[in-house]
Design a protein that fits this description.
151 residues; four-stranded antiparallel β-sheet
């Protein structure tokens, strides 16, 4: 093959490859946001609020579906709620740019054990039971802030 034929062949291959991949780079379609007004934490009914309810109360919501076998024991629910509370509080501290170490986890464990309580909120529903696991401590938000250092 002569030089002109080789150049033409390479140019043709480059155009074909470029055309094949140009379809992959199409724009992503943006979906419009749902048509509903912005809902703030304070606008939600009390049973739907999770996280800090006020500076002294942190709440988790546990929903147990009925009819899916044996209901869990109270101890199993409490253990699950405590574990979830510790994990949720750690995520809160990370979001506040706090350093979570072994000492912080020990402090969270003690906080949850001493000040956390599980209570049944919705019992007479045919499809589910709703529980709150609430941690109540005066100045809880400040206590968590002081529990660990900034990253």
């Amino acid at each position: 093959m002569n030089r002109n034929t080789m150049t033409a062949l390479l140019l043709t291959v480059a155009v074909v490859i470029t055309g094949a991949f140009s379809g992959c780079a199409s724009k992503v379609k943006q979906c419009p946001p749902p048509d509903r007004p912005d809902v703030t934490h304070k606008d939600l009914p009390e049973f739907e609020q999770e996280g800090f309810i006020d500076d002294s109360t942190y709440r988790l919501i546990i929903i147990e579906p009925l009819g899916a076998g044996e209901p869990r024991s109270r101890k199993d629910l409490e253990d699950s709620a405590r574990s979830r509370a510790i994990s949720s509080l750690q995520k809160y501290l990370y979001a506040e740019n706090k350093q979570v170490d072994a000492g912080t986890r020990t402090g969270l464990l003690n906080l949850v054990d001493r000040h956390g309580a599980l209570r049944l909120v919705e019992k007479n529903n045919a499809t589910r039971r709703v529980y709150y696991f609430e941690i109540r401590k005066e100045g809880l938000r400040r206590y968590l802030s002081d529990l660990c250092d900034r990253r």
